Amino acid sequence: MIRLNPKMTEKIVFFLLLVATLVIVIPVMLITVMILTNGAGTLSWEFLTQPPRLGMRAGGIFPAIVGTVYLVFGTLCFALPVGILAAVYLSEYARDNWLTRLIDIAIINLAGVPSVVYGLFGLGLFVSFLNFGTSIIAGSLTLTIMSLPVIITASREALNSIPQSFREASLALGATRWQTVRRVVLPNALPGIMTGTILALSRAAGETAPILFTVAAFYLPSLPTSIFDQCMALPYHLYVISTQVPNIKPGIQYGTALVLISMVLVMNVVAVLIRTHFRKRKLW
User: Fold this and answer.
1) pLDDT (tens digit, 9 = 90+) per residue, 68-101?
2) Cα(217)–Cα(221) distance, rounded to whole angstroms?
3) CB-side exposure of 184: number of CA atoms within 13 Å?
4) Rounded to 5 degrees, what are φ and ψ at 53?
5) Which residue ranges make up each domain of the chain?
6) Helical (H) or strand (E) element with 52
7) DSSP SS3 for 226
């Protein structure tokens, strides 16, 4: 049996890690450069603030941007309180038994369900059964269900990272369990909770299949006035102009993709800044 020098083994492992990193990073960089190169020339004030014209072959993508913001905001309003409350219950109150273990398995499995399945579920429950129709609220609720496993998992990890001694000290001073959770545990777990939430929302902002069945409109230049209205959205709009609109300038497609990627990138940067800000305030 060949026995390698420990230093040589370390170099081989570092090299393999470097190769694995490059395999992931290089394609992403190439895609980003391609989109930036082909789409930067299309970006203009008119493109960002005007509705599409001439069968979406001219004009801008303003209704799609507004629709995407509405959907992300609606998802945040539903997913954040439900996800945090569920994480608090599972982490701080629920006992370790067969039911909680079953819930853990369900949450893990839901995180791996394809987005098109969530879209079909939203179509059956919110659009048809609850009679919301294809609307912003139906799309937001569908994206909420898709985002909850990520938010719950991230929030539970953040709550579990808080030292047990913090809880014991609070209880020893006479605080109730809820006061301990609200004033001690949650403030210290907030960076991880917010980071997980924003990452889940950034994924929801780029999904096409769930909104395809529940909210997205093919062509709707006017802005929605109610949560029960349809709206355009950047992911679906990009799909439409790439597959359903002939003789369209490629710059419009790449420009739309660049705006969508920029929105997701901004959300991820915000998540990093929030995490960094709160970590600096930690004293432990």
Assistant:
1) 999 999 999 999 999 999 999 999 998 888 888 8
2) 10
3) 23
4) -135, 165
5) 62-280
6) strand 52-53
7) coil
Contacts for 218 with CB less than 8 Å, ≥ 6 apart: 240, 244
Task: Assign 152 a pLDDT band (cuts: 50, 70, 90).
Answer: very high
* pLDDT at residue 1, rounded to an integer: 52
Q: Which ranges of the chain would DSSP assign to H, the alpha helix? A: 6-39, 45-49, 62-88, 98-111, 115-122, 136-160, 164-172, 177-180, 186-205, 209-214, 234-243, 250-280
Alpha-carbon dihedral of residues 17, 113, 65, 24, nearest 10 degrees? 10
Six-digit token string for 270: 């915000």
Joined together, the tokens standing for residue 170 give 């609070």
Mean pLDDT of 24-49: 90
pLDDT at 190: 86
What pLDDT does 219 receive?
Answer: 87
> Scanning the structure block, which residue is given the tokens 């059964």?
129
In tens, the pLDDT along 181-210 reads 999 899 888 888 888 888 888 888 888 889
- Class of 62-280 per CATH? mainly alpha
Question: Rounded distance, CA 264 to CA 69, Å?
Answer: 11
Burial class (CB in 10 A: 0-12, 13-18, 19+), 68: buried
Give the single-character DSSP code of 278.
H
pLDDT of residue 43 exceeding 80: yes
- Please state, in angstroms and rounded to a whole number, the distance separating the CA atoms of residues 232 and 221: 8
Tokens found for residue 279: 């970590």
Name the β-bridge partners of 269: none
